[in-house]
Amino acid sequence: MAEYPLVNEVYHKYFNHTNPPIRACVQTILPDNVPVILDAVCKNQTEHNPNFLHVQSISHWAPANIGPYSQAARVNDIIYIAGMIPLVPGSMKLLEAGILQQCKLALRHVHRVIKAMDQNTHIRDVVMGFCFVTNKLHIDIARREWEKRTNNGIVDYIVVTGLPRNALVEWYVWAHRANNTFQYEETGYCLNDHHHVSLRRRWNYDNSVSAIVCYVSNGLSLSIGNVAQVTANQEEDLNIKTLPEATLLEIVQYVMSRLLNENKQLTYVANFKIFYKASAMNSSVIENVFHQLIQQYTIVPTIIPVKHLQNPNTIVSICALRHY
C-alpha cells in the first residue's frame, strides 16, 4: 500500500475518462515473480448502457473517491459498489477507531451509495460481497455487523496484509434491484477424511444471475470454528494435508455445475476468483486445474494468495458470478 499513489498515477493513464470503473484495492502475499494482480470485468456499453456514480468533491453523506474510480456502477439490475473503507466523509480521513466502529462506518457508506444509485435498493439487496480485513480476529466482528443488517448476501471474509489508508476493513459488494426474486441454497459434502466442501449459492428465478461462494476446508479442524481459539501449533497442523490436483478439479467442476444450475448449455462465467491460503496451498496446483477447465468452459480465473480465510481450517474459497 506504500505504492498506492504510484498505482493511481499509472492507473489514471488508462482510465482517464468521465466515469472510470469501480474498483477495490488490497495488499496481499504475492509470489516473488508477481508484482501485481489485476482482476477486471468488461461490459458492452452499447448493449448494457451502464450508469455510474462518480463523486469527487468532499461531502458529508459518503466519502469521495481516493483515486481514479467511480463509487458505483449499475449494469441493468446489478449495482456494483467500489471497495468501501471507513473514511470520515467531511474530512476524508480514516476513522481513528477499532474494528467495530470502522466496520459500522464502512457499511454505512455501502448503504448510502447503493441508495444513491437506486432509491428502492438497500444494503439488504446485496447478493454477494467480500469483506477484507487485516487481522483474522476481526472476522467475527465484521460478520456480526453484517448480519445485523442483512442475512441475504453471501459474503466471503478474507484476511490480507494491508488496505488503503491503513484501514482495518474494506467492503466490496454488489446488489440486485430484484433481490427478492433470488433463491438461496446451502450444500456441502465430505470429499475424504481430510477435506470438506461447503457451498452457498444465490440465483434468481429465471436463472439469468447466479452467484456462489464455496469453501474448501481441512477436515482435521471441522470442530474448530473460532479463529481466536486456534494456537500457532494447531494452525500448522491444519496445513499438513495438502489439496491434490485431482481433488481440486472435482471441487471446481462441482462449483461449475451449481453455478450453471445444471444447464450444460451455459458456458460463460463473468467473474471467477479463487482465494487460497498462501501457507497451505501452492498456486501451481490451482493453475493446473484451471488450465484443464478452460478447455471446457469460457472462464478466466483470478488466483489470489491471502493470509487467512473465513475459518482457520479453510484453505481455498471459490467465488463466482454468472449472468447474461
Automatic annotation (TrEMBL):
InterPro entries: DPH6/MJ0570, RutC-like_sf, YjgF/YER057c/UK114. GO terms for molecular function: diphthine-ammonia ligase activity. GO terms for biological process: protein histidyl modification to diphthamide. It comes from the Eukaryota. Pfam families: Ribonuc_L-PSP (PF01042). SUPFAM superfamilies: YjgF-like. This is Diphthine--ammonia ligase-like. It comes from Diaphorina citri. The gene is LOC113465292.
